[in-house]
Design goal:
This protein is α/β, with parallel strands linked by helices and 243 residues long. It is built from nine helices and ten strands. The chain is elongated. The mean pLDDT is 93.
Length: 243
């Protein structure tokens, strides 16, 4: 049975300050939890309504009731299990040939989707501005569908980083070069800006090249693309066959 104190601690992990205080975050659902042993994330304990469905040491898994699961889950329809994991310290890899750079992304669903896209295209590292939403946010973890275990995510001062990188800094702009005729540099930082404001001025000043996604529809009512949609289109083109 879960104690009132444990429930209170786990419920508090939807807020960044408490994740940092306890050095913990939650991962929900057997499918995602099963990917944790092959990652750098350390599992502290698992609470499950069906422990027999998990291939973990018995000492690590605690059986709980459906009602207890509802109390500690952040999902509207709680899944079978919740894993309590330890936060990892930020550790930057060397610059990769293609990296995603996030400048002030605020929506957890967008960040989770972008992490999933990175994983799909084999991108090993995402570098985020310090005000980008925390990737340990439960909604980010859920939206990434386990991809957070395979993509290195680092938070830093973007101006400092983009000033020193050897990669070519590329960002989107309505007047940028057509992505379908754009010649891909060997080493790329693809910069994605805030959902409403785009990238900030000091970031834009550090761009080496600007690209755009042309609109083929006749209607002008679609003002812009969602940032994760745009990322998917650009990455699909950058990785096109024959390059």
């Amino acid at each position: 049975m879960l104690t009132a104190h444990t429930i209170k601690v786990l419920q508090s992990l939807d807020k960044k300050k408490f994740r940092q205080k306890y050095n913990l975050f939650l991962v929900e659902g057997n499918k995602i939890i099963s990917e944790l042993p092959n990652s750098n994330f350390k599992i502290k304990e698992i609470f499950s309504t069906n422990p027999q469905n998990l291939n973990f040491k018995e000492t690590l898994v605690h059986q709980i009731t459906e009602n207890e699961l509802k109390k500690i889950s952040f999902l509207q329809n709680p899944k079978d299990s919740v894993a309590v994991c330890e936060l990892n310290e930020d550790s930057k890899l060397n610059d990769q040939n293609i990296q995603l750079i996030l400048d002030g992304i605020q929506d957890p669903g967008n960040l989770g989707t972008i992490i999933r896209l990175a994983d799909w295209f084999g991108i090993e590292q995402i570098i985020c501005s310090e005000d980008t939403v925390d990737f340990y946010n439960p909604k980010v973890i859920q939206a990434s569908m386990g991809s957070f275990t395979r993509v290195n995510i680092v938070y830093c001062n973007l101006v400092d980083y983009l000033s020193e990188t050897k990669n070519i800094n590329i960002g989107t702009d309505m007047d940028g070069e057509n992505i379908y005729t754009f010649e891909k540099p060997e080493k790329i930082n693809l910069i994605l800006g805030n959902e409403g404001k785009g990238m900030r001025e000091e970031t834009e000043k550090l761009l080496h090249k600007k690209i755009s996604i042309p609109r083929f529809g006749k209607s002008q009512s679609t003002e812009s693309l969602n940032v994760s949609m745009a990322a998917g289109i650009i990455l699909g083109q950058l990785f096109r066959v024959g390059e």
